[in-house]
Amino acid sequence: MITHTWEDVEARLGLLVLTAAAALDDLTGDAWGTVDERMCFLVARSRLRPDTNLS
User: Fold this and answer.
1) Which of 15, 24, 47, 50 shows its CA 20 to 30 Å from the CA of 7?
2) Is 31 exposed, middle or buried (0-12, 13-18, 19+ CB in 10 A)?
3) How confident is the model at residue 11, as a pLDDT?
4) Hey, CA dihedral for 25, 30, 31, 35, is it positive or negative?
5) What mean pLDDT is predicted for residues 26-45?
6) Residue 54 has what pLDDT?
7) Predicted confidence band of residue 46 (pLDDT cuts 50, 70, 90)
8) Using CA atoms, how far apart are residues 44 and 15, in angstroms rounded to an integer?
9) Radius of gyration, CA atoms only, the chain
10) SS3 per residue for the chain
11) What is the pLDDT, as a whole number, of residue 51?
12) Could you tell me the pTM of the whole model?
């Protein structure tokens, strides 16, 4: 039995992202800057691992 479509899942995930961004903005005052910093950190860390290929 199918209870949700892929579009339902996409909509829920979009709502989750926006809700998390709003909460992060309340905490930091700069949600997207915080996300950008974290992504830069993760990319830099992954480059240190020889078994990780991001290309």
Assistant:
1) 24
2) middle
3) 97
4) negative
5) 94
6) 55
7) confident
8) 29
9) 16
10) CCCCCHHHHHHHHHHHHHHHHHHHHHHHCCHHHHHHHHHHHHHHHHHCCCCCCCC
11) 67
12) 0.65
Return d(Cα 3, Cα 5) in angstroms, integer. 7
pLDDT one-digit tens code per residue, 11-33: 999 999 999 999 999 999 999 99
Name the one residue in this structure whose structure tokens are 């709003």. 22
Residue 24 CB burial class (10 angstroms; 0-12, 13-18, ≥19)? middle
In 3D space, the residue among 54, 23, 24 whose CA is nearest the CA of residue 40 turns out to be 54
Residue 28, C-beta contacts closer than 8 angstroms, at least 6 positions apart = 34
Q: How far apart are CA 9 and CA 45, in angstroms?
A: 30
